[in-house]
Amino acid sequence: MVPAAIILPHLDPNDARPLHEQVASAIRRAIGEGSYMQGDRLPSARDLADTLGINANTVLRALRVLRDERLLEFRRGRGVSVARHADGRALLRERAREFLKESQRYGYGLEDVIALLRELA
Asked: Which of 26, 37, 76, 109 is the most buried (most CB within 10 A)?
């Protein structure tokens, strides 16, 4: 098992996103980058919360979001593990979300971003 500190180095208090979204984002990235492979168990929500210094319910909310995205599986008595069908697309999805948010901050809309991507392709 990978220690929680490796997949979740810190939460940014200046980030406008809610804490559960930051936690979900960090776990998505860890899965996408291969820190967690299919079938690997994650630390318990309580251990993650203790490491991050946040409420366990916040971590559980993040884990439920990832379960709903089918990146994680909850198994009674076995904890939370990376779903067997999870792949590196999780990282790409997360980076695309971040890119779109950053683009919006600079005043670019979706069509502008699509045009930019076409230029780069």
From this structure: 26
Report which of 65, 71, 66, 93 is spatially closest to residue 84, judged by C-alpha positions: 71
Q: Tell which phi-psi region holds residue 12, choosing left (phi > 0), alpha (psi between -120 and 50) or beta.
A: beta
Task: Quote the tokens at residue 63.
Answer: 């884990």
Burial of 11 (C-beta count, 10 Å sphere; 0-12/13-18/19+): middle
Query: pTM here?
Result: 0.71
Express each pLDDT in 28-47 by its tens digit: 888 877 788 889 999 999 99
Q: Which two tokens stand for residue 80?
A: 């939370």
